[in-house]
Design brief:
The complex is a heterodimer of chains A (474) and B (629).
Chain A (H helix, E strand, L loop, with lengths): L8 E4 L8 E7 L3 H8 L12 E8 L6 E10 L10 E7 L2 H13 L3 E2 L4 H8 L5 H12 L3 H11 L2 H25 L10 H30 L1 E6 L6 H9 L17 E7 L2 E7 L9 H16 L2 E7 L6 H10 L8 E6 L9 H12 L12 E3 L8 H17 L8 H22 L4 H19 L5 H9 L6
Parallel strand pairs in A: 1-6, 7-9, 7-10, 10-11, 11-12
Antiparallel strand pairs in A: 1-2, 2-5, 3-4, 4-5, 8-9
Helix pairs in contact in A: 4-5, 6-7, 6-14, 7-13, 10-11, 13-14
Chain B lengths: L3 E7 L3 H12 L4 E5 L13 E3 L3 H10 L4 H8 E7 L9 E6 L1 H14 L3 E5 L2 E6 L4 E6 L4 E9 L8 E4 L2 E4 L11 H7 L4 E8 L2 E3 L9 E3 L23 E5 L2 H9 L22 H7 L7 E6 L6 E5 L7 H8 L10 E3 L2 E8 L16 E3 L9 H19 L13 H12 L23 H11 L5 H23 L1 E2 L3 H9 L9 E2 H6 L5 H4 L10 H12 L1 H18 L17 H10 L4 H5 L6 H18 L7
Parallel strand pairs in B: 1-2, 1-9, 2-6, 9-20
Antiparallel strand pairs in B: 3-5, 4-5, 7-8, 8-9, 10-11, 10-19, 12-19, 13-17, 13-18, 14-15, 15-16, 16-17, 21-22
Helix pairs in contact in B: 1-9, 2-9, 2-11, 3-4, 6-8, 11-12, 12-16
The chains are: A alpha/beta (474), B alpha+beta (629).
């Protein structure tokens, strides 16, 4: 829980460690007066808001220069926290900022708690909760797309879509309530069918938002590619080739990789993590069994599954069947089919490969993959690997372009998932013509969850959770 | 005559009656002042008690010792449970009453009440001393002193009746308005605004062609409002009828809209959105080609018919003209035309949850003066004001009901937290904990609180307690009785069109099934018969267990804030993180809990967070600093 005081707080706002400059931020009524004790150059002039002043920060006791600084002043009501704010840009490295903070604290200021600046901005009504979370994710974003998405959240984009859902929920609820409270007067406003249509619409919109979270996760955590296949089809060779180093041990022996290995490279500004898994086979070796179990969960959660086949000898429909059956996934959309070791079988063509895959798919409900998801390579000779690399690059580029993701936080995703369940239940109940007050209850619960996301409903834990994730000085 | 009382109640309407009775029951010498004893508890508008959300209130009043429920039971001439096709929480009992018998029942009762004096008099002003109510001054300048005054003046404060452009000063047809009192209050700094409410024309029973209308029967089964009433009706039951307006009716109304008092532009007050007049209906629901109207006898033996749903303030001749376009009313005669009454009310943000005014101690407002509409809404406020006036004199804690326990709690909290801009009518949708605020569980909700506050006597509480015990017994019995999937049982299930059972289940489990009801249990092993007020609430609880549990979880979540008290004199200016607007609102409304504060419009969740932090910091400061060893 944050403190409530009228203390003026200070903290290092740039990351600690090396850097050309560092910024110390001060917020509260005493900001300017306190800084002026150490920066005598401020006393010679009428300090104006949003202006930068140059001079020396001096120890107020022995008058020794601490550092050469730039001081920016923001008056009350026109700053990030809406309080009086002063920012001191000093030289980087820990020494000078450390001394400056020490002196400020000795003059009566208090070190800010992590996230306290943003918290004050929120308390003072400068930003809403969703915007505050946007700031957090902007600070943490590792790539341009994530930064853009966070910025849009700070601008209120996420709040807007959620508010739209809120509005629609209130509308349906209003009609439902009228049907309950005015039944005697025959003022029935909407039929059950109309309510059903409207509720289904809300459901769809929530689903779109929920789907967008997957994309947000992609930019937050990067792309995960799992390598799957029978033992000794060359998963580890491909892994090493992608990483351009010999990370995994490669031997001609099946079952060499028993635990999984993860390593990331950077493609198109996004970390792409390759996961080399234990070959999927029945094994009596306990360690290998455990490795296979882990491999399966890794595969389940990956964005792409590279299904690798050894085509040096024969390649049969059965090979595809076996692998697909051994994968524990809901659908095969994420699968990319890779024929390895083509250097040992020069007659093997993409047509051969594809027709076996197609045949295999005839026994599954899923549609066979598009042809551009099938590749012939030689991991050992680094042959045709570019096409595979380009496939990943194109995918990432396409994701960068469509920046429609709006759900960025796990908190929003969890709450919205719950709201989705409530609404789904309401849809079913409307279909079954259940009593209206219970349908209303489900919709109210959904609405409360949307309020919760927007910070409209008070919950003493959300604020703590949200602001505790902040780093110092934000 | 005695000129000194503990409590004076001004106004003999539904609020005044309950206020006076409550104060007198709690042992205080009480004076009820009314314009006329004959019009005490008069039904100025519809001749019925109860309805959706309102039936709940009547039962709550009953559990708190009030009289409305008994009077409604005694004068009931048609009983209906509304929303029977919907779930149990939103069903509401409604009794159409003989309006004369209703008010006569109340008058007889009130005149016999111990500690209570009823007197006909007009009040000119209040006696105020240092922001404290000390009594009243009558029209003849006689002074009567008291320790508390409850104002329940209804539509009488600067009341004006409108029929077309015809205006008469009055609170009701043939009765004088109160003047002076509201000027005095305004001079004291109270903010007063106008409200309006309408009533339909009363028709001559002999001028209606009944054959052309549709018969509206009451329910076969009567369930009294009061736990003190017997389970049978004392009066003959009547039939009501219904008919519809049509395009011709609407045409006439539409063409004459400019003649309606409500549309002349001379009325400042806002009307009740939830009881629209026919003028409102045809303007607001343009695509509806007909509107339902009920023809309800006002008394058993009289000839006056109340035209439910068609309130109007058009000139009398136009009322007649449009009425005669309606099927069955071709030759209708009007006994009393519909009219609109405009009156002063005081923004209820000026009263506390006890209904005591914030600026004048020991002065209470209850009923329409607080901006509500409806007899039930008025009566329950009267009761709460009466109880709190008495408790304050007895130096007891205020009596405030929670939103999770009663519709009365919802009503008063809404009024004192959000205020109102139009006549406030209770609706089930106003209760966020609706699923647990049912008519059937009113005893569970209120009996204990009521008895421990001393509002009901031991004998009554024992009766309520035995009802609760009966429910337990019933539940335990059906929990014990098991059904096994043997041939006889399976055949019996089939015979009743129930799906088969596959393993042994208890009757409780059986009752969870949608089509199964209490009466079916008797075929499947239940030996003892139970009264409806025993088995019905248990059945509801069993059937809707899941949702009731979810609702209770929501209450627990809300409870955190409801349990955090705020001091009335808290200096919000000292709380960091509140906007100026929030400080202003909190200062004005003076919420008593954080829960109430969170419901004030314009007070954001961040403000609630700020208040919690502030309160915590106060607690920390209040603790002595730890001693160093």
């Amino acid at each position: 829980m944050f403190r409530d005081d009228k203390d003026t707080i200070c903290a290092l706002s740039t990351s600690s460690g090396r850097g050309a400059i560092a910024v110390v931020r001060i917020s509260g009524n005493k900001s300017l007066a306190t800084v002026a004790k150490f920066c005598s150059f401020l006393n010679d002039t009428q300090v104006k808001s949003h202006q930068v002043y140059y001079g020396f920060f001096k120890d107020d006791k022995n008058k020794k220069n601490i550092d050469e600084v730039l001081v920016t002043y923001f008056e009350k009501g026109r700053s990030f926290t809406t309080e009086q704010v002063v920012e001191i840009s000093c030289h980087g490295g820990s020494q000078s900022s450390y001394q400056i903070l020490n002196l400020l604290v000795s003059a009566g200021l208090r070190m800010a708690d992590p996230g306290e600046f943003t918290y004050r901005a929120f308390l003072n009504g400068r930003i809403d909760l969703v915007q505050a979370e946007g700031i957090l994710s902007l600070i943490e974003s590792q790539n341009k797309t994530m930064a853009n998405l966070s910025l849009r959240q700070i601008e209120g984009n996420g709040s807007y879509l959620l508010k739209n859902i809120e509005k629609q929920l209130i509308e349906v609820l209003a009609q439902l309530e009228a049907n309950i409270d005015f039944s005697f007067e025959e003022l029935e406003v909407s039929s059950a069918e109309e309510l059903l249509v409207q509720t289904k619409n809300i459901y769809k919109e929530i689903q779109i938002l929920l789907d967008s979270y997957n994309k947000a996760c992609l930019f937050k955590e990067g792309l995960f590619v799992a390598l799957a296949g029978k033992p000794n089809v060359g998963k580890s060779s491909l892994f090493n080739t992608f990483l351009e180093k010999n990370r995994a041990i490669v031997t001609p022996e099946a079952g060499t990789t028993r635990d999984f290995l993860e390593e990331a490279i950077n493609l198109e500004g996004l970390p792409v993590t390759f996961i080399d898994t234990a070959g999927l086979r029945e094994s009596k070796d306990l360690i290998e069994q455990e490795g296979i179990k882990k491999a399966k969960t890794k595969i389940e959660n990956a964005h792409f599954i590279f299904c690798i086949f050894d085509v040096s000898k024969d390649f049969l429909k059965k090979d595809v069947d076996d692998l697909l059956n051994s994968l524990n996934v809901a659908d095969f959309n994420r699968c990319v089919f890779i024929a390895n070791k083509i250097d040992l079988n020069t007659h093997f063509s993409l047509e051969n490969f594809y027709s076996s895959i197609e045949k295999s798919f005839s026994s599954f409900v899923d549609k066979p993959p598009a042809k551009n998801k099938c590749f012939l390579i030689s991991a050992k000779q680094n042959k045709s690997l570019d096409s595979l690399r380009n496939f990943l690059k194109d995918f990432i580029k396409s994701q960068h372009q469509a920046e429609s993701a709006v759900i960025l936080q796990a908190r929003h995703f969890d709450l919205l998932t719950k709201a989705e369940k409530n609404i789904n239940k309401a849809v079913d109940m409307l279909k079954e013509k259940k009593d209206l007050e219970f349908i209303a209850f489900e919709l109210q619960e959904a609405l409360l969850k949307v309020y919760n996301i927007l910070g409209k409903e008070f919950d003493d834990q959300i604020l703590d959770k949200v602001f505790k994730e902040f780093c110092l000085g934000k | 005559m005695k000129n000194n009382f503990d409590i004076i109640v001004v106004g003999g309407g539904h609020a005044g009656v309950e206020a006076a009775l409550a104060a007198a029951r709690l042992g205080h010498s009480t004076l009820l002042l009314t314009g006329s004893i004959d019009t005490i508890s008069f039904m100025s508008c519809n001749p019925s008690i109860g309805g959706l959300g309102k039936g709940h209130i009547v039962k709550e009043i009953d559990l708190l010792g009030g009289f409305m429920a008994q009077a409604a039971d005694k004068s009931c001439i048609q009983f209906k449970k509304l929303n029977q096709s919907k779930g149990p929480a939103v069903r509401g009992s409604r009794a159409q009453c003989d309006k004369n018998i209703y008010s006569k029942t109340v008058q007889d009762f009130i005149l016999k009440q111990k500690n209570l004096t009823v007197q006909e008099a007009e009040v000119k002003k209040l006696i105020l001393k240092k922001s404290e109510a000390k009594g009243v001054v009558l029209k003849d300048d006689a002074e009567i002193f008291s320790s508390a005054v409850i104002l329940t003046t209804g539509t009488f404060m600067r009341g004006v009746l409108h029929i077309g452009d015809h205006r008469i000063s009055g609170g009701r047809v043939g009765e004088k308005a109160t003047v002076g009192l509201s000027d005095q209050l305004v001079n004291q700094g109270f903010v007063s605004t106008r409200l309006k409410t309408g009533t339909p024309p009363r028709l001559d029973i002999n001028s209606i062609n009944w054959a052309k209308t549709k018969v509206q029967k009451g329910d076969e089964k009567f369930t009294p409002f009061s736990f003190k009433s017997e389970n049978k009706l004392s009066l003959k039951q009547i039939l009501c009828h219904s008919t519809y307006t049509n395009e011709k009716t609407h045409d006439i109304v539409r063409k004459n809209l400019d003649k309606s008092a409500a549309f002349l532009g001379t009325i400042e007050g806002a009307g009740p959105r939830y009881c629209p007049s026919i003028e409102d209906k045809i303007t607001r629901f343009k695509d509806k080609d007909r509107h339902l109207t009920f023809l309800e006898p006002e008394t058993l033996n009289g000839n006056s018919i109340y035209l439910q749903g068609l309130s109007t303030s058009l000139p009398k001749e136009i009322q007649l003209k449009f009425l005669q376009t309606i099927l069955g009313l071709e030759d209708v005669k009007i006994l009393n035309p519909g009219y609109l009454v405009e009156y002063d009310f005081f923004d209820p943000l000026q009263v506390r949850p006890t209904l005591e005014t914030k600026s004048i101690n020991n002065l209470y407002f209850a009923g329409q003066i607080n901006g509500t509409s409806g007899y039930e809404e008025a009566a329950c406020q009267g009761l709460i004001a009466g109880v709190n006036a008495a408790f304050k004199l007895q130096k007891k804690d205020p009596f405030i009901l929670g939103r999770d326990k009663s519709y009365i709690g919802v009503l008063i909290d809404d009024l004192v937290t959000k205020g109102t801009k139009e006549p406030y009518r209770m609706l089930t949708s106003r209760a966020e904990h609706r699923l647990v605020l049912r008519e059937d569980n009113v005893i569970e909700r209120i009996a204990e609180t009521s008895f421990s506050a001393g509002l009901i006597i031991k004998k009554d509480f024992d009766k309520l307690f035995s009802i609760l015990e009966g429910r337990k017994t019933f539940y335990n019995e059906i929990k014990k009785i098991k059904m096994v999937p043997n041939q006889t049982t399976l055949e019996k299930l089939k015979l009743n069109n129930f799906s088969p059972i596959h393993k042994q289940i208890s009757l409780v489990d059986f009752l969870k099934r949608v089509p199964v009801h209490y009466k079916n249990l008797l075929d499947f092993g239940l030996k003892n018969k139970y009264e409806e007020n025993i088995h019905y609430p248990v059945e509801v609880k069993i059937k809707y267990e899941g949702y009731i549990k979810l609702q209770e979880e929501r209450i627990v979540r809300a409870k955190k804030l409801e349990d955090m008290k705020l001091e009335i004199n808290l200096d919000y200016g000292l709380v960091k993180g509140l906007s100026n607007e929030e400080v202003e609102k909190l200062k004005k409304i003076q919420p008593i809990t954080l829960g109430q504060a969170s419901r004030i419009s314009g007070v954001n969740p961040s403000a609630i967070q700020a208040l919690i932090i502030y309160k915590k910091s106060l607690e920390i400061k209040a603790k002595p600093a730890p001693q160093k060893n």
